[in-house]
Amino acid sequence: MLYFLIMGMMKGAVFALAGWGFSIILGILGIVNFNHGIFFVLGGYLTAALFALGLPPWLSILCGSVLVGIYAVGVQRLLISRVMSQSHMMVLVLTLGVAIVSREVMGFFFGHDERFLVVSGISDRTFSFFGYIFPALDVIMLLVSVSVFFLFYYLFNHTAAGLTLRIIGENTEIAKILGLDVEGSYDLAMFFCGLWTAMAGSFTVFILPIGLHQDAYWTIMSFLVVIMGGAGNLFGTFISALIVGAILFISSIYVSGYSDAVIYLLLLIILLCKPTGLFKSKMMVEKRI
């Protein structure tokens, strides 16, 4: 059971990467982005395409993630920024439409087949800890997630850019009065969202098949770990992601076919007992004028 628990937590690292992007946009821009899952899927497809062109796996992951980050900024600047000041419902409808169009465009250029990369020396590599054997990619994914968490902590607490993002999240009007670059900060937040979510997809394509139809699933799961952990709480998102990963992995063994139902039931119980999530909500949008 201990082995299954650790394996599940490693699997949960991908939910942390995807969830952090969702949490940042929810906390700073104050919107729910239905296009979020596309970042994950596009990251996987671009990584597979770049790898097919001859790039090494790690460079394919990095380049694919950066390209998705740029795409996310484009969506923010050209589309979302035009409607987010009018209505949150407009943003929901817009991002849902962008997700549908993006999925069809990806199908046109990449085809509708799933992507799954098996690389000798990487996919079959393992690490041994305390007598247990773990897939190397899962271990690396967990280490990357932990590294990203500390990177976010440093960014938001010890850099001018992070302080600017926090001020804008607290009160956009005051940020404008102070002369802060609100639109540029929105672009930066969206770039981080696209980058880390795509990186989750880029790693996953070496572990599990990724298909165009999975974008809705990853949007929902990202939203789930954010709400479960406490909206806007990056540490809460990380812990809830590990919990979700562990429960999904263990339930897939003992109650195969009902894993997702178990997670949604757990979310329902948590929200009924503690509506703000497992940890204190730090959703900055709640304090806006």
Q: What is this structure, in a nutshell?
A:
By secondary structure, the chain is mostly helical. It is built from 11 helices and 2 strands, in the order ααααββααααααα. The termini are far apart.
The parts where pLDDT drops under 50 for at least 5 residues are 284-289
Number of domains: 1
The top level CATH class name: Mainly Alpha
Main sheet: which strands, in order across?
1-2
What is the arithmetic mean of pLDDT? 89
Q: Which class best fits the helix and strand makeup? A: mainly alpha
CATH topology: ABC transporter involved in vitamin B12 uptake, BtuC
Shape: globular
Q: Architecture in CATH?
A: Orthogonal Bundle
Helix percentage: over 70%
Number of helices: 11
| Separation, N- and C-terminal Cα atoms | 49 Å
Model description:
The structure is a single chain. The longest helix is centred in the first third of the chain and has 28 residues, at 2-29. This protein has one domain: ABC transporter involved in vitamin B12 uptake, BtuC (Orthogonal Bundle). Helix 2 crosses helix 9 and helix 10 crosses helix 11. It is built from eleven helices and two strands. The protein is an all-alpha fold. 72% of the residues lie in helices and 3% in strands. The chain has helices spanning 2-29, 36-52, 57-83, 88-110, 136-158, 160-170, 172-177, 182-204, 215-229, 234-254, 259-273, and strands at 126-129, 132-135. The protein has a two-stranded antiparallel sheet.
